[in-house]
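I have been asked to look over a protein record a colleague put together. The record follows directly below this note.
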Amino acid sequence: MKNIILQPFTYIISLFEHIGRYFDLMSKTLRSFTTWHLYIGFLPEHMMKLGISALPIVVVTGLFSGMVTSVQTAYQLESGFIPDSYVGGIVCVSVLMELSPMITALVMTGRVGASIAAEIGTMRVSEQIDALETLSFDPVSFLIMPRVISGAIMFPVMVVIADLFGLLGGFFAATTSIGISSYDYVYGLRDWFVPWYAIFGVIKAFSFGIAITSIACYFGYYTTGGAEGVGKSTTQTVVVSCITIVILNYLLAAILL
């Protein structure tokens, strides 16, 4: 009975321990800026892994996000009293401000976050990180810094690509499945478009990129328990990253809108 009562407090203490260690690791990453020039050459390789390799997934999710938004919008507005051009406008706002950043971030969490956590976690349990320290390598600058910077650079690029294919998917669905003319769709798209919508989505992507890569690096860096620990760290990365994305999504909307 006593253990049941104390269990919630144990979870709370563990949560604050994780938060403290996470920010401690991030502060070490920032403080190691004097050695960044030694490892900045690994940046293109990580950008390729984080961005280019995930491009097909981003294209597919962006395309179908726009298509389903277009179809559902037309279904909601089928009364006949609302102009067809509203479909293009609603797709524009939904894709640029919400769907592309959120869906891309959630997809990249499973694709990129899990990969980073598993890679660094395997290095930890196989003592490769200890070997790096023995050879006078800074494991924080070598392993974490290039990945976090790559995430901050490539996530906005991925979201811009998802925006493009989301709008194209909405156009395709509107003109083929719903029967809306291309003129009405494009007219609504141009009439509702505001540059801030796209900028807001890119700001979201930048924040999500840093959050996902840094969380993955954290869980991978502090992995213990062999192969089972690597699997646990990978699962924790995906779960915590998804929760963080949802929270950040609300906070950014509340602050910037």
Notes: The first helix runs from residue 2 to 31. The chain has a mean pLDDT of 85.
